[in-house]
Specification:
2 domains; 2 strands; mainly alpha; 9 helices; Arc Repressor Mutant, subunit A; two-stranded antiparallel sheet
Length: 205
């Protein structure tokens, strides 16, 4: 009989690993109601610690997370996910180029965001890229159900950027579009059992 994977526990532990520190607000976004109760149970089990800056994994929590991720890998259609990961390469490269343009202008100078026309052009590129990538993200979530919050998180970040809240473009301290996309990429690498360093050398990360 196959082992049952505690979905919300895995979601929360993985979110803490990806973010380093996880606030209660983001925990609620990722697993919904009951996040505070789960945080308390994980603290009692010595899997996480919680302070004013957020939740952090303990060594026991990291061990438990690795165990749950390995169980999940056995349930996922690796062949289908590998094909989707190949498709992921093109939008991932496009996003890297867009984020670079947001940070650095073509002449190599930092983008100080003093040119509204330039920024508007880069934002338009992000909005189009996000729209183009959305169906792929939905298909990924169908193969790995635990990733089903990513379409919504990416869509909400994109809407905020489009509404003029530019910190939602690439700020690593919040669920910005680039940050959520980065986390999705990390998830795919992990579920497929790949190594980030190898992916980076190949140009896929």
């Amino acid at each position: 009989m196959a082992a049952t994977i505690p979905d919300t526990e895995l979601r929360l532990l993985q979110a803490i690993r990806l973010k380093g520190r996880l606030s209660k607000d983001v925990a609620a976004t990722i697993i919904g109601s009951g996040s505070n109760d789960l945080l308390e149970r994980l603290v009692a089990a010595d899997m996480i610690t919680v302070a004013s800056f957020g939740a952090k994994l303990t060594p026991a929590g990291r061990g438990r997370l690795n165990e749950l991720l390995e169980l999940e890998r056995r349930t996922v259609d690796q062949e289908s996910l590998s094909r989707l990961y190949e498709e992921f390469g093109a939008p991932n490269q496009a996003l890297k180029e867009i984020v670079t343009a947001w940070q650095v202008r073509a002449d190599g100078s930092p983008n100080d965001h003093s040119d509204p026309d330039y920024d508007a052009d880069v934002i338009a590129r992000l909005l189009q890229a996000g729209s183009d990538a959305a169906p792929l993200v939905e298909r990924i979530a169908e193969v790995v159900p635990r990733l089903d919050t990513y379409p919504t998180r990416l869509r909400e970040a994109l809407q905020r950027v489009g509404a003029g809240e530019h910190k939602w473009f690439a700020n690593p301290m919040i669920d910005s579009y680039h940050q959520v996309w980065f986390e999705l990429h990390e998830e795919l690498i992990g579920v497929l059992g790949l190594v980030r360093e190898d992916e980076a050398k190949s140009g896929r990360a």
